[in-house]
Amino acid sequence: MQAMSEQPNNIRWYYEGLSKGVFRASKCKDCSKFTFPPTGCCEHCGSWDVEGAELSGKGTLLFATHTGPAASHPRFEKGGPFVYGHIRLDEGPIAQAIIQDAGSSPEDLRALFEKGPVPVQAATLQMDDLPVIAFKLKG
């Protein structure tokens, strides 16, 4: 994890990173906490003194669910149904993202739940218009 020179309030900076497999957040210079996805101010203390930071992409899947029959956005119509999860990133923030390599049936989701928190690694899922962050199950 290293500090980045670009400003995190530039959304293009975030998506350009994703397209290269680089996962970015903002890091507060006052409280040292991370905000993901990156914003122009710290979500923890409200400071505007933030800088761009690169995340490890490692985290823990806390829980998962699946989409219904309708996609949440037209960019997701081709690939569904998706499994979505809440991931605690190793750097602290909670991310909501697609979980790859997880079945969407009730039985698959129950088995995943019964495993308890599961380690995951971030990946980039290239859609027709923009890359999106997704996570792959580890182990």
From TrEMBL:
It comes from the Bacteria. Residues 16-47 form the ChsH2 rubredoxin-like zinc ribbon domain. This is ChsH2 rubredoxin-like zinc ribbon domain-containing protein. It comes from Salipiger aestuarii.
